[in-house]
Amino acid sequence: MSSVLYDTPGPRARRRNVIFSVVFFVLLALFAWWVWQKMDEKNQLTSALWKPFTESEAWTTYLLPGLANTLKAAALSMVIALPLGAVFGISRLSDHRWVRAVAGTVVEFFRSIPVLLLMLFANEFYARSTDVTSDDRPFYAVVTGLVLYNASVLAEVVRAGILSLPKGQTEAAYAIGLRKGQTMNSILLPQAVTAMLPAIVSQLVVIVKDTALGGVMIGFTELLNSRGTLAANYANVIPSFIVVAAMFILLNFILTSFASWLERRLRRSKRSTGAVLGVEKVDDLNAAEIGGGFGSGASA
Amino acid sequence: MFDFLEGYDVLGAFWMTVKLTALSAVGSLIWGTLLAAMRVSPVPLMRGFGTAYVNIVRNIPLTVIILFSSLGLADVFGMTLGAEDFDVQGFRLAVLGLVAYTAAFVCEAIRSGINTVPLGQAEAARAIGLSFSQTLTLIVLPQAFRSVIGPLANVLIALTKNTTVAAAIGVAEAAYLMKTMIENEAQTLLIGAVFAFGFVVLTLPTGLILGWLSKRLAVKR
């Protein structure tokens, strides 16, 4: 195998690689042994701590309802944030300067402040200004925070999706006499949606991860919060963390794999214009590179 | 109008945010570079470890990692990280969690940078007789580093925002203070605006400066 960093290995390089492998393996094994020792020392390996997870009660009472709430908040946030993001994304491409300016300011503002701040604010706002019951309030606050943040990230996804289409699409639409609105609705948006799908699916991973914030900070009973109740009941802090982390990893791994599969499939299909916003895009957008023209967002 | 700010150390809280960001940035840059080196190394076991680490850690919510560092590492395993009092311990645990999490993203950014260097560059370098270390230091790394400034800036901005998660284990940074203030004072909207403004001030210059730098230093191909 050859890469930009190293050539196809000869006999000496192969021998060196074997030595590196052995040394690295020994280091890993030592680390694993040390972790195992520590676990054993603190009695974290006793079967009593792990037993609850083999019985249905721990799942039906704590983990599955928590997971359901996580998924509910994530799905609802996505469903609300998508159309909102589409509106702001399209507004940022408007021909009118003031529409562009307003949409741009809103999007950049909500992208540059942490989701946790939005959730805390929404929670307090609902408590003071609305009559949402205190049981529902954390859920509302989590969804509000997630919607505000993710709508602005999705707005950038939509914008990048539309900008990634070949210019000829717009020109052809104008040439056959379509108006601006018609061009957007029947020519650009349908194609952009296809191009954006992988990026939209991988944004779901970000939303699922962010629901956990609501669990710790404003008492929303999602998966991480349920873990606390479970651990208090069975006194198994470490096992509960491992199980919950594994659930998050599995869930997000499924979403990531689906997004990459979608990306490959869309890239292959001959009917599309060939523009696909990759999964990688999402990491860039979530960081909120501010100032539009400076970052990679506009040049997609 | 802003007299509700009295009695609260807003600047101190943001200073804590800055300290968390700076220390975690340095830590995750080191650990992330090591991970990236593993992921592009010719040793399959190291590549496997790097890939596994990145895929696992990226899919765990940061909140879970930070909470585990406090409830798991500190409370159950008694890892105090050499801290004497509770505040210092929380700070160090938060940095540990942030480094573990952010390094996965740094690793991916650096790896993508190395991948942008065309294979022909290294082949040409070898053809004119440069040794491996010369190829690496004169040809590959300079091009790779220049192309990752943009992605690394994004990681840094995301890290700045992610430091708010440290509030979950009681580190007195901006989000923690905002939670306290918003519960005790009546001016919800103004408090929200003050803290939002603080984060815009922290992230805006980072984005602008590093964005400008990455444009200037980009390798034109």
Query: Which sheet architecture does the biggest sheet of chain B show?
Result: none
In whole angstroms, the N-to-C terminal distance of chain A is 31 Å
SS elements, strand count of chain A: 0
Structural class of chain B: mainly alpha
Number of strands of chain B: 0
Helix content of chain B: over 70%
Largest sheet of chain A: none
Mean pLDDT of chain B, to the nearest integer, reads 90
Oligomer: heterodimer
Strand residue content of chain B: under 5%
N-to-C terminal Cα separation of chain B, in Å? 54 Å
Molecular shape of chain B: globular
Fraction of residues of chain A in helices?
A: over 70%
Mean pLDDT of chain A: 87
**Structural class computed from helices and strand pairing of chain A:** mainly alpha
Number of helices of chain B: 8
Query: Any low-confidence stretches of chain A, pLDDT <50, length ≥5?
Result: 290-300
Radius of gyration of chain B: 21 Å
Q: Helices and strands of chain B, in N-to-C order?
A: HHHHHHHH
Poorly predicted regions of chain B are: none
What's the number of helices of chain A? 11
Task: Summarize it.
By secondary structure, chain A is mainly alpha-helical. Chain A contains eleven helices and no strands.
Secondary structure elements and their pairing?
The complex is a heterodimer of chains A (300) and B (221).
Chain A: H1 11-41, H2 47-50, H3 56-91, H4 97-112, H5 115-129, H6 137-163, H7 167-175, H8 180-217, H9 223-234, H10 237-268, H11 280-286
Helix pairs in contact in A: 3-6, 3-8, 3-9, 4-6, 5-6, 5-8, 6-8, 7-8, 8-10, 8-11, 9-10
Chain B: H1 10-39, H2 44-59, H3 62-76, H4 86-116, H5 119-127, H6 132-162, H7 174-184, H8 188-217
